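Ticket reopened. Same input as before:
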Amino acid sequence: MSIQLRDVRKAFGDKEVLRGFTLTVEDGETSAIVGPSGCGKSVLLKHLVGLLRPDAGTVFVDGQSVPELRKKELVRLRRRIGYVFQFAALFDSMTIAANIGMGLRRLPGWDPKRISTRVAECLELVDLNGLGERYPAQLSGGQRKRAGLARAIAASPKYLLYDEPTTGLDPVTTAVIDRLVLRMRDELGVTALVVTHDMTSAFRVADRITLLHEGTARFTGAPAEIRTAADDVLRGFVDGDPALYYGLSADRHGGQNDGA
Amino acid sequence: MVFFPVADPLLRPLAASGRSTLAALGSVGQAWALFAGSFRAIGEFRVWGPMLLPQMARVGVASVPIALFIATFTGIVMSLQASYTLTGTIPLYFVGTLVGKTMILELGPALTGLTLAGRVGANISAELGTMRVTEQVDALETLAYNPLAYLVVPRVLAGLVMFPFVVLLAISVGIASGWMTALELLDMSSAEFIKGLRLFFAPWDVWFAVIKSVSFGAVVTGVGCFCGLRTEQGAEGVGRSATRTVVISSMLILCLDAFWAATLL
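Engineering reply: fixed in the latest deploy. New output:
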């Protein structure tokens, strides 16, 4: 198995975000973690690249325990992982081409000509041909997300981590991004983990879906299983029914909504 | 860190001061970690090397106009105030002595340092703070870059190298403007002014100014990087970090100013 999290716990101050989360992602699989905003999905992803350390539990990527890696080993592991940030996190003082080539410049054997060729390939892969010399501020939200994806795949990673790749996008652009996620799996053969609260997108791209609820993996299954599962919390999230999701009676929930 | 609520109202001030002390000690520890990490990152020349010249231009060259503006008027005021104080009691050529000595030893380095704390420190803090809250710093790490090598080392080195040049330029312009003021407004001759200027001049004074300005450069850029990289909570946090940078670096500049005067003079 290529990504494995077991009993991961993480707290910020007195707020425990992850309370024993367990998940396995097999080689070549695209797995989605769904859950409402602020439930700890991005925190989970950051553990996989060593941006955060768990308070307890184990995090394995490519057979290596991420929290126990030395700095140089972590750098080597990060070169095998592409990370697509929620708001792209493009370096705004650089052109899109420079952004995409940024990671390549750290790799041995990559001269400017080879980097330039690879940047052009990546731009073509995400349908951004001809926009390499623009700055992030000159792109639309969807284009920025695609540029972020191009940067993540530039070094041909074995793993791709997507942090809310479709948040804030219109349905058509969301479908374009989803198609790109599938294209990365089919053409590059990457193992991918997508965190999202967009169920349509999760059903479209994922081989397996996990619901992150109150810091634990509440339910894991194939999209077909998710659609037919009887779990109230899962049903509540998938159908967008707060009463089911929060386990409230309809009256009480209505009252809470009014208060909100 | 988990803090337990204190029920007894009489103990609350004590608990608050304990929390502040722990937070301050935590900040000192983080600052030390940043310093040690940045020192180790100096070895990654391929990362910070290409960034050094642009940072030197931003920290140093772009700061020259404001530094010279302040130095010009400081020189004028120094000359006029020296004349006002000395007229009728001490020979007027001492105007040159006062302008030279105070510009080199104190006003040149300190005023330039405080000005650059606002211009350079706040700029670095806001830039790195924005990068932090928009996850650009995290992105650097995922692309296998050491953010300390890429962001901190070139800025601090640029501060160390460029602050002395800006300060020396400010001192020169401050003295020159004092000189022009003496010629035009005080009816002094150049010979008189230069006689006063040379009277107590010691080359060590210039080294003293250089040492001070190197330390001010380290403080302003270091504090800017530290506060910027610790930024949290969006635009409001970026503003808070920039303000904190100016306040902390101004205080440290004044403390260092006193320290160098006590140890080197």
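The radius of gyration of chain A is 19 Å. Chain A touches chain B through 23 residues (CB under 8 Å). Please confirm and we'll close it.
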